[in-house]
Amino acid sequence: MDDSAAMNKKETILSIKNLVxxxxxxxxxxxxxxxxxxDVSFDLNKGEALAIVGESGSGKSTGARxxxxxxxxTAGKISFKGKPLADYVSENGALEYARQVQMIFQxxxxxxxxxxxxxxxxxxxxxxxxxxxxxDVSQKxxxxxxxxxxxxxxxxxxxxxHELSGGQRQRVAIARAIAVDPEVILADEPISMLxxxxxxxxxxxxxxxxxxxxxxxxxxxxxxATARYFAEKTAVMYVGHMVEWGHSDSVTQNPQHPYxxxxxxxVPEVGRRGKRExxxxxxxxxxxxxxxxxxxxxxxxxxxxxxxxQEMPEATExxxxxxxRCHHL
Length: 329
Ligand SMILES: Nc1ncnc2c1ncn2[C@@H]1O[C@H](COP(=O)(O)OP(=O)(O)OP(=O)(O)O)[C@@H](O)[C@H]1O
Ligand SMILES: [Mg+2]
Prior knowledge:
Elements: H1 3-8, E1 12-24, E2 33-45, E3 49-53, H2 60-67, E4 75-80, E5 83-84, H3 85-90, H4 94-100, E6 101-104, H5 118-128, H6 137-147, H7 153-158, H8 166-178, E7 184-188, H9 196-213, E8 216-221, H10 224-230, E9 233-238, E10 241-247, H11 248-253, H12 258-265, H13 306-310, E11 315-319, E12 322-325
Parallel strand pairs: 3-8, 3-9, 6-7, 7-8
Antiparallel strand pairs: 1-2, 1-4, 4-5, 9-10, 10-12, 11-12
The structure holds adenosine-5'-triphosphate and magnesium ion.
The site of adenosine-5'-triphosphate has 10 residues, from α2.
Protein name: Peptide/nickel transport system ATP-binding protein
InterPro entries: AAA+_ATPase, ABC_transp_ATP-bind, ABC_transporter-like_ATP-bd, ABC_transporter-like_CS, Oligopep_ABC_C, P-loop_NTPase
Pfam families: ABC_tran (PF00005), oligo_HPY (PF08352)
């Protein structure tokens, strides 16, 4: 690596290797299992955003829930700042890990308690994680509310969640997440429930936190257009598998996997009318099991051949730092 490459190499904060998550399905005594996440690997770098894009049920939220320790992974390695996640837990560091890896949800109303003021919501993590004392907590709450664009802060702090708009509530959720100086924010569809008119404001706020405060984001979305806007890197998921990943520009401008091509063809463009969506076979989306074989997209893929139903494609580097898993690249 030459000097400039070394300078460009950002510090890896969170590293996921070969992550697998199985869920029991149906009657528990039958031992039926579905594989919601299969062999997923990626790094989150300091101050960088990775967008995880894919349709409903592709395993996006399951990945985030594993990282926040809501679910325990079936297999794989997770390390945070170079240390296995399991070590944080066994060494009484779980609270410290929880402070550094925060989550923002799709529904800001659901994540706020209607009987408490905004002040209460933002003060609580500051006190739990000893980032403020009872004496200076209000000042810190006001600073955070200003930082996320909720001014006048003193007035906002006195309000209850129902007195704010959806976009303002999501700003409160962000203030609460950044109150404890996290290294990583896992944002699970943070703008999809908001009015279109306020979505860009929230994305720009997150971009500021990333660029100016060095926070790494995992940005989960259905919308590959916002992935391109916000995130340096993009990973496309299908039925629990990463089918294509790399620099967002490369993945979105030069998609190689038939599923990524389909997602991009569905993005509306200014000046283009009518449908340009690519064709897709009417096959079912498979229920992936540990015993399943082949490419998960084979049943819907317009270019699938025999091999696709039998062998999982290897990852191929199609351009520098841009990978896809497809037998027909
Ligand atoms: N606790 C659970 N028990 C059983 N199955 C689960 C559980 N959580 C998720 N799943 C299954 O795992 C798969 C992936 O779900 P997940 O919520 O991760 O998808 P997603 O990509 O976040 O979808 P969406 O875009 O709808 O939020 C789905 O088939 C889902 O039904
Ligand atoms: Mg989800």
